C-alpha cells in the first residue's frame, strides 16, 4: 500500500535520513521504533510531504507521490496524526471534526457516525472545547479527525506519549478495529514497546537515520530491544 525506497533527507546540509526503506502492506499495522532523534518523525514527514527528499521514492497504492504537495498526498489517502496533540484548543470537539468535513467534503461527512462510534467519549463531549479535554481525549480527537479524511494509510507519531494506560488501551483497541475493517493500513511510530507488541504485525527499528532491524513483530526479541531501543 505504502512503500518508501531509499529515502534520504537533510536539514541544513546535514544528512538526517540515509536511505530509509520501509513497506506498509495492505491491512497491516506497522510499528516504526527507535530511540529519540534517530529520524522517525522525519521519516513520517517525508511520507506526508512536509520535508523535501534528496533522493528516494514514496509510493502510495502504486502511484509515485514523491513530488506531490502535502495537500495532494492527503487527498490521495495519506492521513497523518502528528506528534503532540495537534487540535484546535479554542474550538469545540464538533468544530474540530467539522473542519475535516469542510476540507474533505461529503466523503468525510459520511464517516462522522462511524468515527464517533469508534471514540464514544468524543460523542459525549461534542460541545466541549478541545483545550479542556485530557491528553488522551485530545489524541482520540486527532485520530478521529484524520480518519474523517478517508485515508488509505493512517500515520501516527507517538500517540501514546504522555497518556494514561487506560486510554492507551482504548486507542489500541480503536486501531485494531480500524485495521480489522480492512480498508486502512496503519503506520505507527512508537517508543512504547508493549503497545507495539500487543497490536503490531511488523516492526521496523531505526538508528541514526536508517532502518537497522525489521520483521514480523514476533521476531522482536530481547537482543534487538537491548541493542537498539533501551537507553
Ligand atoms: N527542523 C529541523 N531542523 C534541523 N534538524 C532537525 C529538524 N527536525 C529534526 N532535526 C534533527 O533530525 C534528527 C532526527 O529527528 P526526528 O526525525 O525528529 O527524530 P525522532 O522522531 O526519531 O526522535 C535529530 O537529530 C533532530 O535534532
Ligand atoms: Mg519524533
How is this structure best described in words?
There is one protein chain. It is built from nine helices and ten strands. The chain has a single domain (2-86, 152-228), classed as 3-Layer(aba) Sandwich (Rossmann fold). The chain has helices at 40-48, 70-76, 93-104, 106-118, 120-124, 135-147, 165-180, 193-199, 222-228; strands spanning 2-11, 14-24, 29-33, 55-60, 63-64, 78-81, 153-157, 185-189, 202-207, 210-216. It is of the alpha/beta class and 231 residues long. It is globular. The protein has a six-stranded mixed sheet, sandwiched between helices. It has a four-stranded antiparallel sheet with strand order 2-1-4-5, covered by helices on one side. The longest helix has 16 residues, at 165-180. The chain starts with a strand and ends with a helix. It binds adenosine-5'-diphosphate and magnesium ion. Magnesium ion (MG) is lined by residues 40-41, 83, 157.
Amino acid at each position: 500500500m505504502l512503500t518508501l525506497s531509499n529515502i534520504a533527507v537533510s536539514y541544513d546540509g546535514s544528512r538526517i535520513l540515509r536511505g530509509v526503506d520501509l513497506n506498509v502492506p495492505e491491512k497491516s499495522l506497522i510499528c516504526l521504533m527507535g530511540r529519540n532523534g534517530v529520524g522517525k518523525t522525519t521519516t513520517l514527514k517525508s511520507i506526508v510531504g512536509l520535508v523535501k527528499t534528496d533522493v528516494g521514492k514514496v509510493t502510495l497504492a502504486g502511484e509515485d507521490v514523491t513530488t506531490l504537495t502535502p495537500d495532494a498526498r492527503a487527498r490521495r489517502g495519506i492521513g497523518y496524526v502528528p506528534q503532540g496533540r495537534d487540535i484546535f484548543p479554542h474550538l469545540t470537539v464538533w468544530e474540530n471534526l467539522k473542519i475535516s468535513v469542510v476540507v474533505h467534503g461529503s466523503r468525510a461527512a459520511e464517516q462522522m457516525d462511524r468515527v464517533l462510534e469508534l471514540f464514544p467519549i468524543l460523542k459525549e463531549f461534542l460541545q466541549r472545547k478541545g483545550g479542556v479535554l485530557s491528553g488522551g481525549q485530545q489524541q482520540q480527537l486527532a485520530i478521529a479527525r484524520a480518519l474523517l479524511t478517508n485515508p488509505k494509510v493512517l500515520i501516527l507519531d507517538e500517540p501514546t506519549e504522555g497518556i494514561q494506560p487506560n486510554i492507551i488501551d482504548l486507542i489500541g483497541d480503536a486501531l485494531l478495529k480500524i485495521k480489522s475493517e480492512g480498508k486502512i493500513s496503519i503506520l505507527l511510530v512508537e517508543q512504547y514497546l508493549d503497545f507495539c507488541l500487543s497490536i503490531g504485525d511488523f516492526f521496523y527499528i531505526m538508528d541514526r537515520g536508517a532502518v537497522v532491524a525489521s520483521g514480523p513483530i514476533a521476531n522482536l526479541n530481547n537482543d534487538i530491544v537491548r541493542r537498539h531501543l533501551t537507553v
